[in-house]
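Quick one, tokens below. Sequence please?
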């Protein structure tokens, strides 16, 4: 899964089952390009299965560049048993960082996903702050920084990913001043008033300032960061630049995207086209198909979206005979209480709506709680007349871009929350406030009624935009910014200025 429930299928590995060290490549002792992320880009369903490359745009965007530059990926293997020793897989050197079950509870489920995740998503659930979560966060970040310092070649470029690892740039800068460090935040960066709640706000800001480039999904995120640096640290930011001692830190937006050609190719595949026809026929040719695809996360607004559909069905303007919603909800972070609660809220609503508006043999909501293989996902995108993407807050939301990429015949309507990063680019979507149930019901009604000419005008314009900037452009832009970042490095005998 990528950050937005991209359900791409994984590619098979050549590793032999149950072994950590594969012989599929000569292991480099150190990397010229190092990616540091909470998770490794590989997974396996059980210890006896082979490694598989994980699905998702980030992995597919970085993989070619990593292979080209003797890349190393440093991350968590998902459990202590999964891997302890470095191993090669499909030409990439993976270095596992061990995280104990107790640390998973405090660093991952606790500080990352119960303090930072809700806080950074506009506190749409109350963030919890605990000192017994913060210390493991520091400890695990330090372990990532130390592993990276051991593995990075002299003057290597290091790309640190996401909110789990915000202290790594600062720690790494101290351990290895020769490195060029980029940090990219995949989720929103909150406004000053919200971030200010965080008891460890200054440490997080200083941690991020260890990077040469701090990347955000939107300009607003970068501006929030610079305002916070000005308010809570002794450093000064002007425009996109922050002076940290003699270093120049750049803070700016790098909106992430998808592998557009891959989705287009899937949408042209005859087998997938047939499957889309089959889905349409199964759901009823005469019915308007609405589709939602999300990780089962409280930030995604699935519950209010369901209530908007309920309103429409109750209004008398639509019935189960002319309207159907397919809601795909991918299980996520199931040990965190708020995720257990959102699941039960959503499932209760699905039951209520189907009970009230369904008929024998026909229900208004088809609820699939699972990850779909990418072929099935694309078939659903192609079958859907209206795509509902209504998070309360989202860094980007790649599902919205995937839907548009798959609409090769220029039909379909995207109903999109104005609080997603994607809404900046996909401004020809029907934009909605996901907190406004009446407004969403009206927007869905408008989408259902939209003429084919109007649909084509909007889809065409949005497809052109996403074709102009793919995930590969994102990777090149970000890496290019890190490459050209000037930094002072402590070399033997003094301070040398480096820039390229
Ligand atoms: O969007 C942030 C993110 O961490 C993605 O990188 C990831 O795919 C998704 O959320 C789910 O994350 P995880 O299962 O690692 O908590």
């Amino acid at each position: 899964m990528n950050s937005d429930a991209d359900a791409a299928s994984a590619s098979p590995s050549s590793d032999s089952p149950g072994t950590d060290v594969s012989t599929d490549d000569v292991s480099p002792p150190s990397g010229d390009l190092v990616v540091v992320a909470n998770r490794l880009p590989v997974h396996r369903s059980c210890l006896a299965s082979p490694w598989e490359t994980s699905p998702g745009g980030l992995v597919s965007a970085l993989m070619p560049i990593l292979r080209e530059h003797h890349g190393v990926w440093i991350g968590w293997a998902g459990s202590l048993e999964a891997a302890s020793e470095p191993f090669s897989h499909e030409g990439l050197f993976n270095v596992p960082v061990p995280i104990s079950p107790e640390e998973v509870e405090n660093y991952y489920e606790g500080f990352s996903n119960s303090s930072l995740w809700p806080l950074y998503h506009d506190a749409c659930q109350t963030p919890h702050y605990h000192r017994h979560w913060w210390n493991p966060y520091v400890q695990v970040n330090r372990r990532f920084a130390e592993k990276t310092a051991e593995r990075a070649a002299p003057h290597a470029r290091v790309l640190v990913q996401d909110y789990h690892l915000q202290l790594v740039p600062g720690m790494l800068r101290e351990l290895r001043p020769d490195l060029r460090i980029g940090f990219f935040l995949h989720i929103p960066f909150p406004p000053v008033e919200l971030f200010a709640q965080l008891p460890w706000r200054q440490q997080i800001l200083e941690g991020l300032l260890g990077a040469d480039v701090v990347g955000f999904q939107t300009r607003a995120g970068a501006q929030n960061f610079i305002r916070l640096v000005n308010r809570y640290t002794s450093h000064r930011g002007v425009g996109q630049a922050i002076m940290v001692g003699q270093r120049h830190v750049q803070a700016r937006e790098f909106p992430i995207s998808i592998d557009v050609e891959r989705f287009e190719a899937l949408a042209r595949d005859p087998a997938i086209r047939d499957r889309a026809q089959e889905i349409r026929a199964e759901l009823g040719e005469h019915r308007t198909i609405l589709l939602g695809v999300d990780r089962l996360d409280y930030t995604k607004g699935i519950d209010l979206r369901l209530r908007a559909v309920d309103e429409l069905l109750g209004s008398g303007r639509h019935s189960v005979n002319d309207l159907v919603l397919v809601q795909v909800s991918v299980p996520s972070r199931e040990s965190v209480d708020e995720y257990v609660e959102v699941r039960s809220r959503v499932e209760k609503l699905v039951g209520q709506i189907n009970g009230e508006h369904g008929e024998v043999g026909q229900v208004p909501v088809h609820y699939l709680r699972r990850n779909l293989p990418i072929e099935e996902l694309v078939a659903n995108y192609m079958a859907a007349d209206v795509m509902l993407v209504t998070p309360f807050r989202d860094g980007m939301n790649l599902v919205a871009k995937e839907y548009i990429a798959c609409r090769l015949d220029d039909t379909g309507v995207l109903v999109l929350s104005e609080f997603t990063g994607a809404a900046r680019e996909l401004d020809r979507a029907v934009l909605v406030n996901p907190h406004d149930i009446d407004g969403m019901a009206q927007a869905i009604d408008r989408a259902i009624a939209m003429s084919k000419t109007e649909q084509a005008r909007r889809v065409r314009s949005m497809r052109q935009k996403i074709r102009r900037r793919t995930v590969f452009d994102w990777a090149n832009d970000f890496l290019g910014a890190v490459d050209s970042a000037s930094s002072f490095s402590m070399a033997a005998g003094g301070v040398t200025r480096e820039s390229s």
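Confidence is low (pLDDT under 50) at residues 1-26, 487-500. The longest strand covers residues 152-161.
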